[in-house]
Amino acid sequence: MIKQLIEREVIFVWWGFKEVLVITTLGLLGLGEGVKTEQPALLVEENVEEEKSIEVKVTVIYDNYPLVESLKTEWGFSCLIEGLEKTILFDTGGKGDILLENMKKLNINPEKIDIVFISHDHWDHTGGLASFLQENSRVEVLLLDSFSPNLKNEVIRSGANLREIKGPSKVCSGAYSTGTLGSTIKEQSLVIEAEEGLVLITGCAHPGVLDIIRSVKSHYHQDIYLVMGGFHLLDLSLEKLQEIYKQFRGEDVKKVGPSHCSGDHTRELFAQKYGQDLVEIGVGKTISFPLKLKPRHYNLETN
């Protein structure tokens, strides 16, 4: 009798996206053939979290072009990058007192900064480093391995963690160093993976701003959304600047933000040609863009 009951029991299982329905048909004495017993549905909750966009904000702290009246201007460049895994100070301008004063007015706490990224070993980009390290020596300072022993020793004496960069390297999730570019004046630029393309921040672009752009595109295989910072185009003729502009367009650079050593004529020409896609850079400028949610994996140095 037990054997007959087992043989005559049929179990139907229906799978849905959110629930499982189990129906049994039992041939039992006294219940008759084909009686269906519906078990309570087993709810399977979706464990799908919406990916929230992460906003990256770049604030220009130090520049020779004014924008916010209350902030001081001086020859040099520095900007702060927030919203990444780590908060990054890109260069430190030429004078520590101006750097720190502008930080204070912008409500930037030096102690909240995790990484100092130095593009190249020139006074107008390293001059504020010692003063900053007095405020926060618990940072990691990224220098090219070719930088002067004096600069490296300054970092070591402060108690900060010195990291020497040679080739293309990961700075933190979503941000990278180009590694050493140039021959006479060696320089590194910062690359950020934004949702709309790469954001490239240059200190002075001594290796050539177009060469930096091409190197980044070749290495990361993505289009460039924004190039900002110093372009080192101060003394070029209008004819040469127009040719450089055409090559920017040829490289599909969506937006530009020339500043510092780019030159007035460069800023005027790019403003005319790029129109709404020109980002006016000056002290106090803030730029925001969504970070790429799933950064690509690259074969980079870990240093």
Name the CATH architecture of the largest domain: 4-Layer Sandwich
Strand order of the largest sheet: 10-9-8-7-6-5-17
Q: Give the tally of structural domains.
A: 2
The name CATH uses for the topology of the largest domain is Metallo-beta-lactamase, Chain A
Rounded mean pLDDT score: 87
Helix content: 10-25%
Output the CATH class name of the largest domain.
Alpha Beta
Order of helices and strands: HEEEEEEEHEHHEHEEEEEHEHEHE
Counting H and I runs of at least 4 residues, what is the number of helices? 8
Q: Biggest sheet, open or closed, and with what strands and sense?
A: 7 strands, mixed
Through-space gap between termini: 75 Å
Sheet/helix structural class: alpha/beta
How big a fraction of the residues is strand?
Answer: 25-35%
Radius of gyration from the alpha-carbon trace, in angstroms: 29 Å
Return residue spans where pLDDT drops below 50 for at least 5 consecutive residues.
1-49
* Record field, number of beta strands: 17
CATH superfamily membership of the largest domain, which one? Ribonuclease Z/Hydroxyacylglutathione hydrolase-like
Describe the global form: globular
